[in-house]
Protein backbone atom coordinates (compact mmCIF):
# COMPACT_ATOMS: atom_id res chain seq x y z
CA UNK A 1 0.00 0.00 0.00
CA UNK A 2 1.37 3.41 -0.90
CA UNK A 3 1.18 6.63 1.08
CA UNK A 4 2.41 10.21 0.87
CA UNK A 5 5.78 10.59 2.56
CA UNK A 6 6.32 14.31 1.87
CA UNK A 7 4.91 17.34 0.07
CA UNK A 8 7.22 19.51 -1.99
CA UNK A 9 7.78 22.48 -4.19
CA UNK A 10 10.01 21.83 -7.21
CA UNK A 11 11.62 24.77 -9.00
CA UNK A 12 13.40 24.58 -12.34
CA UNK A 13 15.09 27.78 -13.46
CA UNK A 14 17.71 29.18 -15.78
CA UNK A 15 19.76 31.81 -13.95
CA UNK A 16 21.93 34.40 -15.66
CA UNK A 17 25.63 33.87 -14.94
CA UNK A 18 25.83 37.46 -13.60
CA UNK A 19 23.20 36.64 -10.94
CA UNK A 20 24.56 33.23 -9.95
CA UNK A 21 26.70 34.17 -6.93
CA UNK A 22 23.91 36.21 -5.34
CA UNK A 23 21.38 33.49 -6.18
CA UNK A 24 23.49 30.70 -4.72
CA UNK A 25 24.25 32.49 -1.45
CA UNK A 26 20.63 33.66 -1.10
CA UNK A 27 19.42 30.07 -1.46
CA UNK A 28 21.98 28.90 1.12
CA UNK A 29 20.64 31.53 3.52
CA UNK A 30 17.10 30.32 2.82
CA UNK A 31 18.12 26.78 3.69
CA UNK A 32 19.42 27.99 7.05
CA UNK A 33 16.09 29.70 7.70
CA UNK A 34 14.04 26.69 6.59
CA UNK A 35 15.80 24.44 9.08
CA UNK A 36 14.08 26.35 11.89
CA UNK A 37 10.53 25.95 10.53
CA UNK A 38 8.11 23.27 11.76
CA UNK A 39 7.47 20.50 9.28
CA UNK A 40 10.53 21.19 7.11
CA UNK A 41 12.22 17.99 5.87
CA UNK A 42 14.82 19.00 3.30
CA UNK A 43 16.05 21.48 0.71
CA UNK A 44 17.98 20.07 -2.25
CA UNK A 45 19.68 22.15 -4.92
CA UNK A 46 21.20 20.88 -8.16
CA UNK A 47 22.88 23.10 -10.72
CA UNK A 48 24.86 22.82 -13.94
CA UNK A 49 26.49 25.14 -16.45
CA UNK A 50 24.75 25.60 -19.78
CA UNK A 51 26.49 26.14 -23.12
CA UNK A 52 25.35 29.78 -23.22
CA UNK A 53 27.04 30.51 -19.86
CA UNK A 54 23.85 30.52 -17.78
CA UNK A 55 23.15 28.13 -14.91
CA UNK A 56 20.33 25.58 -14.91
CA UNK A 57 19.06 24.80 -11.42
CA UNK A 58 16.57 22.50 -9.78
CA UNK A 59 15.52 23.17 -6.19
CA UNK A 60 13.29 20.84 -4.16
CA UNK A 61 11.87 21.83 -0.77
CA UNK A 62 10.08 19.05 1.15
CA UNK A 63 7.58 19.27 4.01
CA UNK A 64 5.97 16.76 6.37
CA UNK A 65 2.38 17.84 5.71
CA UNK A 66 0.45 19.71 3.07
CA UNK A 67 -0.43 22.30 5.75
CA UNK A 68 3.27 22.98 6.45
CA UNK A 69 3.87 23.40 2.72
CA UNK A 70 0.87 25.70 2.33
CA UNK A 71 1.95 27.88 5.26
CA UNK A 72 5.43 28.26 3.78
CA UNK A 73 4.07 29.01 0.29
CA UNK A 74 2.06 31.89 1.79
CA UNK A 75 5.23 33.44 3.16
CA UNK A 76 7.55 35.75 1.23
CA UNK A 77 10.52 33.42 1.76
CA UNK A 78 10.08 30.84 -0.97
CA UNK A 79 12.61 29.72 -3.57
CA UNK A 80 10.63 31.26 -6.42
CA UNK A 81 10.30 34.59 -4.54
CA UNK A 82 14.06 34.70 -4.03
CA UNK A 83 14.74 33.86 -7.67
CA UNK A 84 12.32 36.55 -8.88
CA UNK A 85 14.15 39.13 -6.73
CA UNK A 86 17.52 38.51 -8.39
CA UNK A 87 19.01 40.99 -10.85
CA UNK A 88 18.77 40.05 -13.58
CA UNK A 89 15.80 37.74 -12.91
CA UNK A 90 15.87 34.16 -14.22
CA UNK A 91 15.49 33.64 -17.97
CA UNK A 92 13.01 30.86 -17.15
CA UNK A 93 11.26 29.80 -13.96
CA UNK A 94 8.92 26.81 -13.56
CA UNK A 95 7.20 26.06 -10.24
CA UNK A 96 5.46 22.76 -9.48
CA UNK A 97 4.06 21.04 -6.41
CA UNK A 98 4.47 17.30 -5.85
CA UNK A 99 3.72 14.55 -3.37
CA UNK A 100 6.43 11.98 -2.64
CA UNK A 101 4.72 8.60 -2.75
CA UNK A 102 6.23 5.47 -1.25
What does this structure look like?
Helix content is 29%, strand content 40%. The protein is of the alpha+beta class. It has one domain (4-101): Alpha-Beta Plaits (2-Layer Sandwich), CATH 3.30.70. Strands 2-3-1-4 form a four-stranded antiparallel beta sheet. A hairpin with a 5-residue loop joins β2 (40-49) and β3 (55-63). The longest helix is centred in the first third of the chain and has 15 residues, at 20-34. The termini are close together.
Radius of gyration: 14 Å
End-to-end span in angstroms?
8 Å
Query: Biggest sheet: strands side by side, in what order?
Result: 2-3-1-4
Please outline the major beta sheet. 4 strands, antiparallel
Order of helix and strand elements from N to C terminus: EHEEHHE
The backbone outline, from C-alpha atoms, is globular
Main CATH class: Alpha Beta
Q: What is the oligomeric state here?
A: single chain
Would you identify the CATH architecture? 2-Layer Sandwich
CATH topology: Alpha-Beta Plaits
Amino acid sequence: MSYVKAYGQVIEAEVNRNAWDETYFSLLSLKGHLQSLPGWISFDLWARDLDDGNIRLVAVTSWETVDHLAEWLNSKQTVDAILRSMEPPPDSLDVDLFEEII
